[in-house]
Amino acid sequence: MKRFAIAVTAALLSTTALHAEVTEEMLLNDAASTQDVLTNGMGRHLQRYSPLDTLNKENVENLVPAWAFSLGGEKQRGQETQPIVHDGVMYITGSYSRMYAIDIKTGKEIWQYDARLPEGILPCCDVVNRGAAIYGDNVYFGTLDARIVALNKDTGDVVWNKKIADYKAGYSYTAAPLIVKGLVITGNSGGEFGIVGEIQARDAESGDLVWTRPVIEGHMGTLNGEESTMTGTLNATWPGDMWKTGGGATWLGGSYDADTDTLVFGTGNPAPWNSHLRNAGTPTDGNSGDNLYAASRLGIDPSNGEIKWHYQTTPREGWDYDGVNEVVAYTDRDGNDRFATADRNGFFYVLNREDGKFVSAVPFVKDISWASGIDENGRPIFIEENRPGDPASSADGKKGDVVFSSPGFLGGKNWMPMAFSANTGNFYVPSNEWGMDIWNEPITYKKGAAYLGSGFTIKPNYEDHIGSLKAIDPDTGEVKWEYKDEAPLWGGVMATAGGLVFTGTPSGEFIAFDDETGDKLWSFQTGSGIVGQPITWEQDGEQYVTVISGWGGAVPLWGGEVAKKVSYLNQGGMLWTFRLPRQYASK
Ligand code: CA
Ligand code: CA
Question: In 3-state terms, what secondary structure has residue 3?
């Protein structure tokens, strides 16, 4: 009798998941469900806003560490993950394509997965990973050798492992995958190697490709294993064969707006950086040299991968102003459904949610040099003499005129996500005030080699600060308050209904600001620079906040004079979880 009972239990265990399955409906409701964090962006609109107010302005001073978790090993480097929380388990990704499942009550490791990376991977901008996705009984993440891996969420066992693209040609993957209606949807990285940006949708259960959509005109998409349609019109905005290695890496992944049933992906710089090699006409020839759809935002039909709309932030881009930054869906104070996005190029854009059409744009950093503004059609008003010069018109043909450009190529804002607060109606934008000397050089494409045709060095614009967290009113563009940091900000932002705005600094401070005044209400020193993304959730009636600490990312590798300025910062790799003890919760 006893033996029989044990057998039955074993059979149950082998067929029943330890933790509940994650459904499409749970993903759809993620922003409102406070006991979990199931999507990158804390909800599909990417607002990074929690309706929790247990923790608030009055009691945040009582927020204390609950546990910390070390990523261990010698593999430190930048830690940019956004944790996922589901059914008592936290899932994080780490540098060098690692993933961990952690008990959220104790901080104890449940399992760890280390991807075996081949020699010769070509990540441009540190060995980071920005987070996982969860669906059904699987968790998903991308690896530096441009693969997407599905792991069983309870055991960490590999369910499937698929190739996104050839790492030897410069492809890699660092963004959090996106799950929509049973599809796992990914972009790609490698815009500095002359790759071609693409979006791929796979069946989440099997990993089989459903559709692909290259984002550079002239390339063919696929649907169910067959060619579907060409992206754009061949040679409409690209000269000769330049489109074949045209860049447009979709390296920050995308989002899904359920209200309009549209995937939204951003695309990186056209390749190479030297814009004179991509000019199909003169600056006055309409859009013949725009290099679509690089440096753009794209609206895509999730059922077949067709492009529904596009908005190009920087036509014939020539400063590495990747157009990948996150597009946040929100409703403005007049009830209009909008998108907002803060571009590398220094402008904060509002777009119409239905069709991606331009609504307005304002600068969110000072000293923009490449354009004097954005016209009523959403097209930049270029200052042509501030475009880096054409090497072909220099005396020896080897180096074009050097110009000072602001923002620098790492952008007025880079990948680090902003937050939108339903509490104040404002955006909280992590930005940097810096510029660069930049010049162009001749270049030809070679597989797996850097494909820039440019040289550059980044410089601070101000003596006392580079980093600038700004509270911006999206209706007027007015900056309500600003926090300045001497180092470049590289971490994500989160807002809460408790009136708090959280972010971290390169010196390791994890800070809670007052969302209306910008007053610093609480901070905690995490021991290494913060370039990760905070989250909050509720467990057993208490509110928790988590952020990862671990300095790195693109700044130490590419930051020129700025990198020297911040070379004192220590590396790390520690996940910190904070809790407001029950007795301090004021209701
Ligand atoms: Ca949730
Ligand atoms: Ca780029």
Answer: helix
Distance 25 CA to ligand 1 centre (A): 11
Enter the tokens of residue 124.
């441009």
Range 113-123 average pLDDT: 95
Instruction: For residue 267, report the distance from its CA to the centre of ligand 2, in Å.
Output: 9
State CA 235 to chain mean position distance. 30
Q: What is the pTM of this model?
A: 0.96
Distance (Å, whole) CA 236 – CA 239: 8
Give 502 Cα–ligand 1 centroid separation in angstroms.
18
In the predicted structure, residue 416 carries a pLDDT above the cut 60: yes
CA–CA separation, 486 and 505 (whole Å) = 9
| Of 445, 13, 437, 3, the residue nearest 195 (C-alpha) | 445
- Among candidate residues 30, 145, 290, 320, the one labeled active-site is 320
From the CB of residue 93, how many other CB atoms can be counted at a distance below 10 Å? 30
Q: Provide the strand spans (E) within 344-478.
A: 347-352, 358-363, 371-374, 380-382, 403-405, 419-420, 427-432, 434-440, 454-460, 467-472
Q: Which CATH superfamily is domain 4-584 in?
A: Quinoprotein alcohol dehydrogenase-like superfamily (2.140.10.10)
Distance 277 CA to ligand 1 centre (A): 47
- Does residue 320 have an active-site annotation? yes
Contact 576, 510 (CB under 8 A): yes
- Would you place residue 239 in the very low, low, confident or very high pLDDT band (cuts 50, 70, 90)? very high
Distance CA 431, CA 475 (A): 19
Distance CA 495, CA 47 (A): 8
- 485-488: long-range contacts, CB 8 A cutoff, minimum separation 24: 487/529, 487/565, 487/566, 487/569, 488/410, 488/432, 488/434, 488/555, 488/559, 488/562, 488/566
Cα distance between residue 234 and residue 243, in whole Å:
9
